[in-house]
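User: Run a structure prediction on this.
Assistant: Running it now.
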Amino acid sequence: MTIFIDDSGTSPENAVAVAAGWIAHTDSWVDFQTDWDKARDIDGDKFDSMHMAEFVLGRRGTEFEGWSLEKKQRISARLRGIIKNTVAKGFPLGIVKKDFDELVPNALRVQGFESHYTYAIRRVLGMIDTWRQKEKLTESIEYIFDWMDPGDPRRKESRVWTCRRRTGGPSSLWPRQGRLLV
């Protein structure tokens, strides 16, 4: 299985930090990428790269500027359908930064929960582990973390393996788009 994890709202001006991931059998991501690419290339609904904040807000200077609510709803429904048909489970978590700053004690922060982002990522990883144990999954999971803005040329992805046994190498697929639809 492979899980793609991303974050949103980690900029200081954002009130909420979010970490989320989608997990699916590694082979399912091939179908996902094919379906997603087709959805991005539909006449009248074309887009290059999905970034939910830009998409929802229609930010000036983005490819989504001036898009109608009807168009956004149509595209969003199409993309949600692709995700629903691909993934086994989603793992979202939002942290209200003000609450975190006021309520999380220093004793917890020094244990690796020093920021909104690290807290959110660690909690999502904990949710994945709980789900994995509940489902009695024994196959390895490839964790792929993404960071930086989608258009940033310095953008990279990190591959981290975990689990009791390793059963193969990292996949060659990088379906970046779906996890940005959180």
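The chain has one domain: 2-179.
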